[in-house]
Specification:
The chain is of the alpha+beta class. Helix content is 18%, strand content 25%.
Amino acid sequence: MEVFRLAREKYKDVLSGKGAAIKGARWNSAGVEIIYTAANKSLAMAEVAVSLSMKTLPADFYMLTIYVPDATSVLKLNTTDLPVDWNKFPHPLSTKKIGDDFIKQGKFCLLQIPSVVTPGDYNFLINPNHPEFSLIKIIAEYPFGFDNRLFPLV
């Protein structure tokens, strides 16, 4: 399987959950390392785009293609498995707890969760502390520019 991630140039060669651990996000609390990836390139772009504007849009993004062996352990969650506030903003504590528990329990390397940004698509969270993580590799990368029509100036 391949998953995708947009990363700034200086972080494009490293898969770690250190960036997500700085402030936390929807699926992790601050201090909890987790790697956010998407099932497809469009979703990877959309997940980043929702938090940017033309004023804050960096020009140094890279699209990463990440190889995940098919036999990698995956916990799959659907919307029916999630709390009623799972898709609210700001990110609720209920979803942070799900991601934190996923990392803490260490039973699975991947957590497949529904995307808030694109209903019907899935994100894959990677546990960088899981033994299977050593088999996950970046296999391709290329500079990625956002289409300016996504961020109109007017």
